[in-house]
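Data deposition worksheet. Section B asks for the primary sequence of the deposited chain exactly as it was used as input, without tags or linkers unless they were present during the calculation. Section C holds the resulting structure in token form. Section D is free text for depositor observations; keep each observation to a single sentence. Incomplete worksheets are returned to the depositor.
Section A, Depositor: J.P.
Section B:
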Amino acid sequence: MRKWVLSGILASEETYLSHLEALLIPMKPLKAAATTSQPMLTIQQIETIFFKVPELHEIHKDFYDALLPRVQDWSHQQCVGDLFQKLNLKVKSTKDSHSPSSTALLYKPVDRVMRSTLVLHDLLKHTHSSHPDYPLLQDALRISQNFLSSINEEITPRRQSMTVKKGENRQLLRDRFMVELVEGSRKLRHVFLFTDLLLCTKLKKQAAGKGQQYDCKWYIPLADLTFQTIEDCESTPIPLVQDEEIDAMKIKISQIKNEIQREKRTTKGPKAIERLRKKLSEQESLLLLMSPNMAFRVANRNGKGFTFLISSDYERAEWREIVREQQKKCDFSLTSLELQMLTNSCVKLQTVHTIPMSVNKEDDESSGLYGFLNVIVHSASGLKQSLNLYCSLEVDSFGYFVNKAKTRVYRDSTEPNWNEEFEIELEGSQTLRLLCYEKCGNKAKQGKEDGEITDKIMAKGQIKLDPQTLQNKDWQRSVITMNGIEVKLSMKFASREFSLKRMPSRKQSGVFGVKISVVTKRERSKVPLIVRQCVEEIERRGMEEVGIYRVSGVATDIQALKAAFDSNNRDVSVMMREMDVNAIAGTLKLYFRELPEPLFTDDLYPNFAGGIALSDSVAKESCMLNLLLSLPEPNLVTFLFLLDHLKRVAENESINKMSLHNLATVFGPTLLRPSEKDSKISHSSQPISMNDSWSLEVMAQVQVLLYFLQLESIPTPDSKRQSLLFSTEV
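Section C:
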């Protein structure tokens, strides 16, 4: 009988609180504007709630007679609570001078909950945990505490947890802004991972001056959560955004940043800057929404799947690890009222308040590093068994992470010793991430999560790229410790202004740093030997290499090939066959980068930059082709030879993931960047940072090369084409 009575009390208390919650939510400052996303209570709903909450019976008649007629005249600045205060209603016994005001009466329901909470505390204190009433009392206390927490959200500091069944705390483990794929469309979500459930929410659109509010889109108890595999999910194709669109967003972002900097130097005032910041926020939000393409799929116990898109294998591994660890110890219970209160409390629980964009950074915050980071991956220690191990390096760019390089596989060792150096281009980067993978030779060992066959991640870690530390031009040694495994690194940074200078070679007998006309004349050829040999080797075995020309080759191998070509070593072809194909691609890029004058020449570079900006397509084609045919003969023939090769590489895009746009991004600045003396780039007083005008110039260089890559053919005059392309000297 006692248990039955307690169950009845618990059910009554929960029903009571749900009615009270329904009234209190709209009594917060929610305007009566038609555009609000929170529906206002109707007159009938308010009346019903007043009847169901006993403490409000006393003021019901006054409320009904005096307050409700005014509802028709609500302004955009009023809410239910405001009208109570204005009217200063009294209870029915107006003759009693000690009668409480209507404002005081509104606190009576909350007082009841507070008194109930204190009583429940005392009951629990004197009830043994083995008693059958104990869990019922716990549930009643939990509901009361969570209710009191939810109505105090406006005045309490950020909360860390909510009470759940059995008196435990529902702790927030992490929250992130993520992109969810919903029926083929990308949606920005705020995802909260608690100790017992994964909650996916959407930030509501609010009128100016209102606080944040979240809508629950879905949730999965961790006990029921699974990571979908290729076998048990109907794999929805990921809608890929064209590289050109992503690049256009980056160009707009750089242009708006430039405008903001210009406005700061003028006296037009903060309104103009605020408008630009709003534009910047829209573009950066769009970029972060469109850029991720790596699937992260979860499902509930019924097999219903949900797909997130992320940009980094590191981040995907983090989510899996923390969920699996929590699944070992989680218990779950959630009523519909608790779900509503939990979603409402996310405003106070959240740790990530803004999307990681530059517009959300303070003016004195670092905008990241622009330039080239040389990284040597030395060795790893701490492995408990011999593995086939390799490392992958990621850096952030425009708010998301990109894979930049990977070491060779070091086989059957507990202490792999790579000693491989990579040159990684940084674009506003602040963090370097390292992942250690076990190369799985057989399919039985390979992971198949998220519809992809992957090698196993053994360890992962990251290191902040500190501008002050990296200002020093010496090598900086670091150790990344992760899961008992230590990986030793060395890093050295060079700003773009320093690293991209075209330096003529003092030794004119070599090929690097020597004018292309000098090399071709000496070799009696139309195309330099180094270009032909590198292209031939890449076409022989590198056309299906994922990320060819984008993934960095080992710097020591590249330097060895450079020395061999410079000394005219006859064994260079043998060396190339034994080296990783990415090192050969890196050697070819280095050759063009170190030309004392760009392939497109200093004189013609401004004209190419102007021609690509023309809006009339006919005028643009005429201008660009005439400029191209104005190049010196060795430059033109070498460019056409390289152009044909890059088009053949792009034909294998489905395998090597290198589109025409990707190739233009890699080679555009290399082939067009003018010599230092002709560069129009303004040099910052802080060499560690980069003016956004540089970024705009790089984008223009990419667009010039992309234009020629996208032309089906270069309509050169027959006589000249015959002379250029079919010469036996080539």
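Section D:
The mean pLDDT is 77.
The two ends are 100 Å apart (CA to CA).
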